[in-house]
Specification:
globular, 4-stranded antiparallel β-sheet, alpha+beta, 2 helices, about 25% strand
Length: about 70
């Protein structure tokens, strides 16, 4: 419900949301996912080039859980 757009190039990804990302970033850090903001409502992801597919899937699952918790 909070997703507006996902955009990016390669592993650089921006997830535009309808809610401010600061609280989401705090919860993600508590879950072990390091992300940044790119403006007030864009979650910025830039994983290392050595990231594995399993790590990406775990990160995506945690991001989904945290975003869905903001209802």
């Amino acid at each position: 419900d909070h997703l507006v757009e996902v955009r990016g190039l390669g592993l650089m990804v921006g997830i535009e949301l309808t809610v401010p990302v600061q609280d989401i970033l705090t919860k993600l850090r508590a879950e072990g996912v390091i992300a940044l903001s790119a403006g007030e409502k864009v979650l910025r992801l830039l994983p290392p080039l050595t990231v594995t597919k399993d790590e990406l899937m775990q990160g995506i699952e945690k991001i989904n859980e945290v975003i869905r918790s903001f209802s």
